[in-house]
Amino acid sequence: MDVRARVEELRRQVSYYAYRYYVLDDPAIPDAAYDALFSELERLEAEHPDLVTPDSPTRRVGGPPLDRFAKVRHAAPILSLANATSAGEVRDWWKRASKFLPGDAPPPEFVVEPKIDGLTVVLTYEDGTFVLGATRGDGEIGEDITANLRTVQAVPLRIPLLPDDGLAAPRRLVVRGEAFMPNDKFRALNRLLAERGEKTFANPRNAAAGGLRQLDPVASRSRYLSLYCYAIVAQDGGTRTETQWELLAYLRRLGFLTPPDSAHIDSLDAAIAYGEEWMRRRDSLNYEADGVVIKLNHLATAQAMGFVGKDPRSAVAFKFPAREATTRLLRIGINVGRTGTLNPYAELEPVQLGGVTIERATLHNFDDLARKDIREGDVVVVQRAGDVIPYVVGPVLELRLPGAQPYQVPAECPVCHQPVRRNEGEVAVYCVNSACPAQLVRLVEHFVSRGAMDIEGFGTNTGALLVEKGLLKDVADIYYLRPEQLLQLEGFKDKKVGNLMAGIAASKERPLARVLAALGIRGVGSVVAQLLADAFGSIDALMAAREEDLQNVEGIGPEISRSIVEYFSIEGNRQVIEKLRRAGVRLAQERRAAEAQAAPAPLNGKTFVITGTLPTLSREEAKTLIEQHGGKVTDSVSRKTDYLVVGEAAGSKLDKARALGVPTLDEAQLRALLGVPS
Ligand code: IVH
Known about the structure:
Blueprint: H1 3-23, H2 31-47, E1 71-73, E2 82-84, H3 87-97, E3 110-116, E4 119-126, E5 129-135, E6 141-143, H4 146-150, E7 172-180, H5 183-195, H6 204-212, E8 226-236, H7 244-254, E9 263-265, H8 268-281, E10 289-296, H9 299-305, E11 307-308, E12 311-312, E13 315-319, E14 324-336, E15 342-353, E16 356-362, H10 366-372, E17 379-383, E18 391-395, E19 420-422, E20 429-431, H11 437-448, H12 462-468, H13 483-487, H14 494-507, H15 512-518, H16 526-536, H17 539-544, H18 547-551, H19 558-569, H20 571-583, H21 593-598, E21 607-611, H22 619-628, E22 632-634, E23 643-646, H23 652-660, E24 664-665, H24 667-674
Parallel strand pairs: 2-13, 21-22, 21-23, 23-24
Antiparallel strand pairs: 1-6, 3-9, 3-10, 4-5, 4-7, 7-8, 10-13, 11-12, 14-15, 14-17, 15-16, 17-18, 19-20
Helix pairs in contact: 1-2, 11-12, 15-16, 20-22
The structure holds 2-(butylsulfanyl)adenosine (IVH).
The site of 2-(butylsulfanyl)adenosine (IVH) has 15 residues, from strand 3, strand 8 and strand 13.
């Protein structure tokens, strides 16, 4: 076979297999076989430069870098579309548009296509060869991006791409389509960029634009791009199509991809219903679309209906509520979490997103912030998918203000101003000051929450208020709050205070697992807490456990073990536990019924009176302790009093007890009686 024939044969094969592989995602031969064919073609072309043609599949590699893109005038204006944002607006559109239907128009039928969120491109073919690819530009004049588009596999370099009986290439064909980055490719590209420490793209659209408008086609990211074509801008020769539905089929025969998930529908209501149904599926698709386009199917009729400005009357974009918006990031703020983690968030210029106004969005963590190089003052892309809280996807670098400074991770906690810590290999930055008021507020919120101590009547802002007023220095202080202190706070009336006190008292009975989860030990949520409670039975046993004891528990790994040991090694935390104990919070697993009967509460039914100041226990704490062991505390001494607990500066109660022969106890004796060590 002569070289020319072999080269042509190879081109046909390589084009076909590349189309199966890259465009249809359905390879027909093993990669190695394809590579062999491709190399042979490359070799023959290198040996015979005269045989090289611009439509050879080897030419997809792109040419030398350009200084700038040349301007090109489009064959016909590249129009836009009117928008509708609800079914009602789509009906209004058709009510207006249908007045322009010519008298001889066939009954209206529609094609519904996804409105691909990419970049409009215009491809020109002469005698079947791809000769020009351009951006939309202003609709009249675009930029020549032929070299970049050549590297996009979904752009056929020749049409018909595959031999197709009876299908002749038009002498000239200008096709309009949307270049975009499929979601899986977008994720792969971003992963790659992140690994290399380069900046990632905020969304597939930016990534696609970045790829197409690179001046160096080799460096261009166009190999990640795809293209769906949906319109013929100009045609000279070839097959004439009468409807949009036929036009899409024709484009496919020529070798173009057309928008998937499109439908041919015979009524407007059904078209609207299809669009709404499509909307519900949008998250499961591999391309981003911001709506559907509803087009009148009959092309001659569409043409006859004319235009309003630049918008054809015969089609409408039925747009979905955006899930993404751009706005300015005013300030990067920091939240201190309950375990001390510093979490950055964005304060935004208010912006509408999916029907709500957004003023704040999360920034995940400092690593993410640095990787995306988000700076104060940047215009940023904000996203909100489903019901999740909005987050900042990334900055729009083109709009960065001169002088914008890279963000610096703070060296100190913004609330307590103590130095922060970053553990090796960990993303999080911590404030390690356990007395940090911000941490305490978060911890209190957590402590009283449903899954933890579940304190009824403890409102969302109560914790912040009590911390601010100095009434809570740690979570255990909750159990030492006195009604008269609360009554002084704004908005705290008798009833509210009564409810809160009752809620606090009731919470003392929560099982051990709840208490453990409530402490906010890093890594100890409700599941781990239950494992610990079952394995150790009491907080004392848990506090005595070493890392290896903890790791012996099924489901507890080295990290959690370390975190637990560390927690209990901190003096402040141990004090919190002791305060909880004195307050009467249950710190041991409920005994089984049989055991409970065998060992009845030591003070069952006994009545106590307390007088004077005890060395370590407050009046309230002593009372709680006694009640926790089954005793009762009353205010005045009588014949029925079993014990008088006596502290310093005891008054008349002691005299009375002596007179009545009521036995007295000091704190140490009380503790001995209760079995509570000091
Ligand atoms: S039809 C006159 N169909 O959406 C023809 N447009 O304003 C008007 N788009 O930027 C366009 N997918 O490039 C049409 N299936 C589709 C489309 C589509 C995306 C873009 C179009 C334009 C915008 C419409």
